[in-house]
Amino acid sequence: MARKSSADSTARADAVQSIVDQWRRERPDLDTSPLQVFGRLHRVFLRYQSGIGGPVEKHGLSLAGFDVLTALRRAGSPYRLTAGELAASGLITSAGVTLRLDRLEKDGLIARERDPEDRRVVYSRLTDEGLRRIDELFAEHLRNERDMLGGLSPAECRQLAGLLGKLERSLEDAQGAAVAE
Question: How does DSSP assign 41-60, residue by residue?
Fold first, then answer.
């Protein structure tokens, strides 16, 4: 299947630009430029989420389960973390960690183990099947993400990654300022 060129993409109707134009018409006194960024980020996220969901579901996992397995895999051997460590790993919220772990344990992808020195501590550990499954799926996931970035050059990908990192820091600063008020 041939990829559409960036000229073809530009020629397509731009829903975000239409929204911005409508607001400029209705409220010319407002600076609608943030919509150029956040409207596109929202639309990109929805497309991204849809694009990664299929392969993950094909492997019998939810995106939430995928996040848990990747966090355990990134932890390195023996591929185990506590529920609190999973929640702090960056992509997983603490709400619902137990439900995710229950499902993954039922599917034989993780096992729960008590710490022999402190029985209050419970680790979730990848099973051999969990390790095999996440290694296979993560390689497929990266191929899929590379395909999604196919319309950008490597230099554009690096530039975009840098700009998104800068945007994330800007959002963190804005949230910190809002809390301080």
Answer: HHHHHHHHHHHHHHHHHHTT
CB 92 within 8 A of CB 68: yes
CA distances, 141 to each of 2, 32, 41, 144 (Å): 21, 35, 20, 5
Tokens linked to 94: 């603490």
Signed CA dihedral, 148, 109, 62, 92: sign only: negative
Q: Are 163 and 40 in contact (CB under 8 A)?
A: no
Helices (H) and strands (E) in the chain, counts: 8, 3
Q: Say how many CA atoms lie within 13 Å of 130 toward its Cβ.
A: 29
CA dist., res. 134 & res. 71, Å (int):
10
- Taking only the tens place, the pLDDT of each residue in 4-57 is 544 444 445 589 999 999 999 999 999 999 999 999 999 999 999 999 999 899
DSSP assignments along 133-160, one per residue = HHHHHHHHHHHHHHHHTTTS-HHHHHHH
Are the C-beta atoms of 32 and 24 separated by less than 8 Å? Answer: yes
Sign of the alpha-carbon torsion through 92, 47, 161, 147: positive
Provide the whole-model pTM: 0.80
Q: Which CATH class is domain 32-148?
A: mainly alpha
